[in-house]
Design a protein that fits this description.
The protein has 8 helices and no strands. It is mainly alpha-helical. This is RNA polymerase sigma factor, sigma-70 family.
């Protein structure tokens, strides 16, 4: 049985041995990420557990059948996204000095929705040309237009801006044309 199916079936069946294997194999990487990004061990444990619950829910309710990467990459990306979301929430609470009471179920639903949006974005990004993916990767990494001109040998910053605009428009169009898009709007 392929590794992805093995782990997904183990989660679906609540197989303690498989879940323990998931923890021992993949938790250290998540722990390192959380500790390196303003977190504690307890935060990493919470994030990891929430993501396993998300995956379980998706397997049962949303019929998550396939993962387009390795299980480890999928799990780690979901943990990274959830931890970044948590940091942003903490930042907002700190900045406003207001504590929001969000139920665990609501928080889980939002996290699941964000993960599904991320997956749709990544899937549609892969449908773009190599050049568009490069341009958008640089743009999303906040690389200046001047650097984009240098790296991709464009004639000017105006050309780079136009290319970014066209690639973003194309990505938005193919995302919005996917029938899953309507279900991912809050």
């Amino acid at each position: 049985m392929p590794e992805n199916e093995y782990f997904m079936k183990g989660i679906l069946d609540s197989n303690e041995r498989v879940v323990a294997e998931i923890y021992s194999s993949f938790f250290p990487k998540v722990l390192g990420f959380v500790l390196n990004n303003k977190g504690q061990i307890a935060d990493a444990e919470d994030i990891f557990q929430k993501v396993l619950m998300q995956i379980s829910i998706r397997i049962r309710c949303r019929e998550l059948q396939t993962i387009n990467s390795t299980f480890e990459a999928y799990l780690f990306t979901a943990c990274k996204n959830l931890w970044r979301r948590e940091l942003n929430l903490r930042k907002r609470v700190t900045n406003r000095n207001i504590k929001e009471q969000v139920s665990e179920e609501t928080d889980m639903a939002y996290a699941l929705l964000e993960q599904e949006r991320w997956e749709l974005f990544k899937e549609k990004l892969e449908q773009l040309s190599d050049n568009c993916r490069q341009v958008l990767a640089l743009f999303l990494s906040k690389v200046s237009y001047g650097e984009i001109v240098e790296k991709l040998s464009y004639a000017s910053e105006t050309v780079a801006r136009q290319r970014v605009f066209k690639c973003k428009a194309k990505l938005i169009k193919i995302i919005k044309s996917d029938e899953r898009f309507k279900n991912l709007i809050p």
